[in-house]
C-alpha cells in the first residue's frame, strides 16, 4: 500500500471485519488516506470510529451506523451520543446531518414494515 486510494480501499475492507481492532485499524487506514489527500476517505474515517465505539460498548458520535434492535427488530442508530458532534462538523466530514439521518432512519423503518394485505 502506498497511495491514498490504497489506504482508503483497505479501510473499507477492515471496516467489515468482526473485531473492535479491525474497526480501529480501518479508522487508522482511513486517516492515512485523508492525510495523503483523499478527502473522500473522511466518511469512512467517521464510520469506522463509530463502528469501533459501538463494538467496545460506547455510543457512536457521528450517526453513521444503523442496525436492527434485537428485541423489536426495528431499525435504530442507538447507542448514539447525538449532542457531542454538531451538524456543522458532520458536514465537514461528509456525514449526514441529524435531519438527514432521521429521514434515512424513517425510510429504513418504512421499508422494513410488514406489508398489509388489501
Q: State the helix count.
A: 5
- Envelope shape: globular
Q: Which structural class best describes the helix and strand composition?
A: mainly alpha
Helix content: 40-55%
Question: If you compute it from the alpha carbons, what radius of gyration comes out, rounded to the nearest whole angstrom?
Answer: 16 Å
Task: Count the domains.
Answer: 1
Tell me the strand order in the biggest sheet. Answer: 1-2
Number of strands: 2
Strand content: under 5%
What is the first-to-last residue Cα distance? 56 Å
What summary fits the major beta sheet?
2 strands, antiparallel
What ranges have pLDDT less than 50 throughout 5 or more consecutive residues? none
Overall mean pLDDT stands at 93
Q: Write the element-wise H/E pattern from the N-terminal end onward.
A: HHHEEHH
Can you describe this structure?
The chain is 54% helix and 3% strand. It has 118 residues and is mainly alpha-helical. The chain has one domain (4-112). A two-stranded antiparallel ribbon has the order 1-2. The protein is globular.
List the helices and strands and how they pair.
Elements: H1 4-15, H2 20-35, H3 41-55, E1 67-68, E2 75-76, H4 87-92, H5 98-112
Antiparallel strand pairs: 1-2
Task: Give the structure's gist in a few sentences.
This protein is mostly helical and 118 residues long. The chain has helices spanning 4-15, 20-35, 41-55, 87-92, 98-112; strands at residues 67-68, 75-76. 54% of the residues lie in helices and 3% in strands.
Amino acid at each position: 500500500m502506498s497511495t491514498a486510494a490504497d489506504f482508503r480501499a483497505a479501510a473499507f475492507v477492515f471496516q467489515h471485519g468482526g473485531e473492535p481492532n479491525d474497526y480501529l485499524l480501518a479508522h487508522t487506514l482511513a486517516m492515512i488516506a485523508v492525510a495523503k489527500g483523499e478527502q473522500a476517505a473522511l466518511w469512512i474515517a467517521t464510520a469506522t470510529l463509530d463502528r469501533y465505539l459501538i463494538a467496545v460498548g460506547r455510543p457512536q458520535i457521528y450517526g453513521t451506523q444503523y442496525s436492527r434492535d434485537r428485541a423489536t427488530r426495528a431499525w435504530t442508530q442507538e447507542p448514539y451520543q447525538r449532542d457531542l458532534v454538531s451538524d456543522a462538523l458532520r458536514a465537514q466530514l461528509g456525514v449526514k446531518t441529524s435531519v438527514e439521518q432521521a429521514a434515512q432512519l424513517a425510510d429504513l423503518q418504512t421499508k422494513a414494515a410488514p406489508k398489509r394485505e388489501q
